[in-house]
């Protein structure tokens, strides 16, 4: 315990307090010896970083529980890594920096339920660099993360329907392997239609 506290830059008393609050998991015991590992050290450094960013211990405890009971990276990636999206590995404090003040247990649970976030030990994995960048940009513009996630859920419903439409269209006239080859065409149609729809929406508003 003394060695862990020294490496983490905290006092033994603080470490005991964190253990009592269940902010870190119990050590592995061999007889009367308690063994801590790199996961304990990473969690302590995360707690320190989140405290420096203005999070309270109660908030950190809720976040820690959400992380510990969240979907792991295997569940997040499902049958395999995305073919066209780049997953991003983040520490909890890096995630907090992307969404300043918006990383609540509720938002974290919603993002995990959507399949945007998973956990891998002390790291968080976001399923898509593009989605991470867009959602953090929207939050910086003043849109609450909870609203961004609600919109993401609605978009998911519509895009699932569009994917089914294009796949069925292609499979009626081409072999199954053509679906992968022709998917950029489907994406271009959706992008163009969304652009035109935004034009119509802005014209009505004007």
Structural summary, described in words:
It holds the Pfam family MerR_1. Keywords: DNA-binding. Residues 1-66 form the HTH merR-type domain. The protein is mainly α and 206 residues long. The chain is built from ten helices and five strands; from the N terminus they run ααββαααβααββααα. Strand 1 (28-30) and strand 2 (33-35) form a beta hairpin. Helix 1 packs across helix 3 (38-52) and helix 7 runs parallel beside helix 9.
* Number of beta-strand segments: 5
The chain-level mean pLDDT equals 87
Low-confidence stretches: none
Number of helices: 10
The string of secondary-structure elements, in order, is HHEEHHHEHHEEHHH
Principal-axis shape equals elongated
Largest β sheet strand count, sense and barrel closure: 3 strands, antiparallel
Widest sheet: strand ordering: 3-5-4
Fraction of residues in helix? 55-70%
Strand content: 5-15%
Q: Structural class of the secondary structure composition?
A: mainly alpha
Task: Report Rg.
Answer: 22 Å
Distance between termini? 65 Å
Keywords: DNA-binding
Pfam families: MerR_1
Protein name: MerR family transcriptional regulator
Organism: Streptomyces hirsutus
């Amino acid at each position: 315990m003394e060695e862990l506290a020294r490496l983490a830059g905290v006092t033994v008393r603080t470490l005991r307090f964190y253990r009592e609050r269940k902010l870190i998991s119990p050590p592995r015991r061999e007889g009367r010896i308690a063994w801590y590992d790199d996961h304990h050290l990473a969690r302590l450094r995360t707690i320190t970083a989140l405290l420096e960013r203005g999070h309270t211990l109660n908030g950190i405890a809720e976040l820690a529980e959400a992380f510990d009971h969240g979907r792991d990276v295997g569940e997040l990636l499902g049958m395999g890594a995305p073919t066209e999206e780049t997953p991003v590995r983040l520490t909890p404090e890096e995630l907090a920096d992307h969404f300043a003040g918006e990383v609540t247990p509720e938002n974290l649970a919603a993002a995990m339920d959507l399949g945007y976030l998973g956990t891998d030990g002390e790291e968080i994995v976001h399923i898509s660099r593009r989605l991470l960048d867009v959602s953090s940009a929207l939050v910086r513009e003043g849109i609450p993360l909870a609203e961004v996630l609600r919109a993401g859920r609605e978009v998911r419903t519509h895009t699932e329907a569009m994917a089914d439409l294009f796949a069925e269209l292609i499979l009626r006239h081409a072999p199954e392997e053509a679906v992968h080859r022709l998917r950029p065409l489907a994406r271009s149609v959706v992008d163009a239609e969304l652009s035109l729809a935004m034009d119509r929406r802005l014209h009505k508003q004007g």
